[in-house]
Write a structure and sequence with these properties.
Elements: H1 6-16, H2 22-31, H3 34-39, H4 63-67, H5 74-84, E1 103-107, H6 108-114, H7 120-127, H8 131-143, H9 146-149, E2 154-156, E3 163-169, E4 172-180, E5 185-191, E6 195-207, E7 211-224, E8 229-234, E9 238-241, E10 249-251, E11 254-260, E12 266-271, E13 283-289, E14 295-302, E15 306-311, E16 325-329, H10 343-349, H11 367-373, H12 377-401, E17 410-419, E18 422-429, H13 432-441
Parallel strand pairs: 1-2
Antiparallel strand pairs: 3-4, 4-5, 5-6, 6-7, 7-8, 7-9, 8-11, 9-10, 11-12, 12-13, 13-14, 14-15, 15-16, 17-18
Helix pairs in contact: 6-10, 7-8, 11-12
GO biological process, one term: lipid transport
Pfam family, one: Oxysterol_BP
GO molecular function: sterol binding
């Protein structure tokens, strides 16, 4: 018999644990404001006359007040909307030059590193003998990243050849590199005594006017070292709403599948879509299945709070005598942080997590990122434009010389990985960074804070074509 809807099973488990009433109370409160929220609209915004803005998080503000929470000034909205109309329906990943007002002082490579905050969950998965609990901890690790990914500020696109290094966290070493500019692709590798993590990332987007759909064309593999178990992740797509008008918010709705490539066991988790007044937002429910597609463990929770699990029968019902247990909980976060950063996000931007003799191509050294971090939007915009122009000039120079860009720390393989949204060229960690870092760590050099190099991801010292 097929298991019951995981959302129903999760509700039963939560009710047995003494919860379940909060949603209906908050919904009743929200419904009291239904009339005013649905009848008021935003007026005077070109192309969006009559747009109704509903708070996805269940607040009680009316539509006009909600719209004022956008980060754009009125004149900025109008001019930017005129510019962006021609891109509706397009993949804008690498087509549009965006103003720094919508950026956070971090790059996509650093966003990749943010996934490493809760690596202790992978350590636990590696140490766990129960094959199903391994998947509980591993899937909780991947869910933990979504709190960081809800931030509505856009990270900087990495320059071709840009890197990011991280040490001094959970015993792991992390390296990421921008391996392609068109299409934008990044590769990352992390490792400690328990696991290796390898990711090739390529995003496909569809711009819809005031929103954009993001399709994660990527391959993420984790190898647990004790038994050589290989885990493969397929995440759900993401939608960014209210890019220009209203308060920007992000929702990931759909199915996440984490498969044990060694045994055939898997986790299937459903990210609930955000409904009216925020109903269902953040909720994740699903099961760990064995290779015969029989449910073994119920998983439920919210990706912005905590995840829990409970053993279940073949119908997906919680086993009698078992209880809902927590597998992961969000760490404490700063209050009213300007960029909605976690403490770990601040560490990622800090040189405290940088190794000795940081690569000159590291994201921390980007002048536009550093200026934005200091609140200097004018300098940040100028530096961003300069970097982008230098990148274009180097591409012209490379083409004139007949050269091809070759990443330093990752090699392109012949593998083409199919994904639900398109095929992916796979890059593999080549091991050179491990040797590079070992050589530096074994040296006796002492690095002074003011001796760090200027940002330099460039292939050529000179842009003069021969």
């Amino acid at each position: 018999m097929a298991p019951k809807d995981p959302k129903q099973a999760a509700a039963a488990a939560a009710a047995a644990a003494g919860g379940g009433g909060g949603f209906f109370a908050s919904l009743a409160s929200s419904l009291s404001n239904f009339g005013s929220a649905m009848t008021k609209s935003v007026n005077g915004l070109m192309g969006y006359e009559g747009l109704e803005v509903i708070n996805p998080e269940g607040g009680t503000e009316d539509a006009e007040e909600e719209a004022k929470k956008g980060r754009w000034k009125q004149e900025d909205r109008d001019s930017y909307w005129k510019m962006m109309q021609k891109y509706i329906g397009s993949d804008v990943t690498s087509m549009v030059t965006l103003p720094v007002i919508i950026f956070e002082p971090m790059t996509m490579l650093q966003r990749m590193a943010e996934l490493m905050e809760y690596t202790y969950l992978l350590d636990m998965a590696d140490e766990c003998e129960d094959p199903y609990m391994r998947l509980v901890y591993a899937s909780s690790f991947f869910i933990s990243a979504y709190y960081a990914y809800q931030r509505t500020w856009k990270p900087f696109n990495p320059i071709l050849g840009e890197t990011y290094e991280m040490v001094n966290h959970g015993g792991i070493t992390f390296i990421a590199e921008q391996v392609s500019h068109h299409p934008p692709m990044s590769a990352g590798h992390a490792e400690n005594e328990h696991f290796t993590y390898d990711c090739t990332s390529k995003l496909k987007t569809k711009f819809l006017g005031n929103s954009v759909d993001v399709y994660p064309i990527g391959r993420t593999r984790v190898t647990l070292k004790r038994d050589g178990v290989v885990l493969d992740l397929v995440p759900p797509p993401t939608k960014v709403s209210n890019l220009i008008f209203g308060r920007t918010w992000i929702d990931s709705a759909g199915e996440m599948v984490l498969t044990n490539m060694t045994t055939g066991d898997k986790v299937v988790l459903y990210f609930q879509p955000c409904g009216w007044f925020g109903a269902g937002r953040y909720e994740v429910d699903g099961y760990v299945y064995n290779a015969a597609d029989e449910p073994k463990v119920l998983i439920t929770g919210k990706w912005n709070e905590a995840m829990s699990y409970q053993l279940c029968d073949l119908d997906g019902e919680p086993l009698p005598g078992t209880e809902l247990k927590e597998s992961w909980r969000l760490a404490d976060i700063p209050k009213k942080d300007k960029f909605q950063y976690t403490y770990f996000a601040h560490k990622i931007n800090s040189f405290d997590t940088a190794p000795k003799k940081l690569l000159a191509s590291d994201s921390r050294l980007r002048p536009d990122r550093m200026a934005l971090e200091k609140g200097d939007l004018s300098t940040s915009g100028h530096e961003k434009s300069s970097l982008e122009e230098r990148q274009r000039a180097e591409k012209r120079d490379r083409e004139a010389k007949g050269d091809k860009f070759v990443p330093k720390w990752f090699d392109q393989t012949e593998d083409i990985a199919p994904t639900p949204w398109g095929d992916l060229e796979v890059y593999h960690y080549n091991g050179k960074y491990t040797a590079h870092r070992a050589a530096i760590d074994s040296s006796c050099c002492i690095e002074e804070p003011d001796s760090r190099a200027e940002f330099n991801p460039w292939q050529y010292d000179s842009l003069d074509a021969e």
